[in-house]
UniProtKB/TrEMBL annotation:
Gene3D superfamilies: 3.40.630.30. InterPro entries: Acetyltransferase_Eis, Acyl_CoA_acyltransferase, GNAT_dom. PROSITE patterns: GNAT (PS51186). CDD domains: NAT_SF. One of its GO terms (molecular function) is aminoglycoside N-acetyltransferase activity. SUPFAM superfamilies: Acyl-CoA N-acyltransferases (Nat). This is N-acetyltransferase domain-containing protein. GO terms for biological process: aminoglycoside antibiotic catabolic process. Residues 2-145 form the N-acetyltransferase domain.
Amino acid sequence: MLEIRLAQQGETALQKELWKRCFGDSDRYIDFYYANRYKEDETVVLLHDGEISAMLTMLPVRTVLPDNRSFKTAMLYAIATNPDYQNLGFATKLMDFSNQYLRIQKTELSVLTPANGHLFDYYRKLGYQDGFDIREAQLLRASIESLAGDQACQCTVSAITPHEYNRRRNKQLDGRLCIAYSDEDIAYQKKLSQLSGVDIYAVDIDEIQGCFVVERITSDKVLIKEILLPEELMNVALKQISQQLSAQEYVLRTPYYLGKHLGGRLRPFGMIRVDRKIDWVITSEELGYLGLAFD
């Protein structure tokens, strides 16, 4: 017997067990998520014979168009099915329920970031289309230090509040198709970054106000999950970042339209589904930027 519904009180221990089995995250990280981001009314569970066997989270965000119109959007996150019950259609049933629920809530769009490349075809069958690419490069410290840059530029890097980060982020993405987050979402990302020993940051280069998010993977490796500032100032910013956040390797994610000169690869990152009739269609010539997927 299957039952699909919103999560209820007293179920977090069972959800944590499923999360760990599906994603392999540490207890420390799982406990952190449930202490800082979990909400029952944003979590959908599927029960098989009374046992939580699949679940997903619906994070409220907004899709902003180049003309600055915005639409109520849900980011489907942490889609998990007990390995013992995979290939039985549980995830599809869970997502169908979630999409019906979101329509009732007058949510116009939903987005998600597939955990691996093989899942893109699966989500396409459920009505999703490619919508958000990123550029990803792996840079050694020595290669960053050798980048050409304007030595006359005054560049400073400092930790920043979620509200100020969001203000800078929205300004840098103005006029582009993108996913916009609440200050609460950015506050959660700040805690995630701090959990790994770093933070979210402002980068100021003369009069230009940019921002970036970092998570430390190991003592010698950091992930710059998002960096937003004009292309011509990227080298200057990276050189300053490498001086203040020491590592041997930097994994850099940028919007698809930034950082081409740094090498790396352009890859699909997020997908989008239109759940209500709106007068806008995403095209391959007008891909958007999602950025923070809390992955």
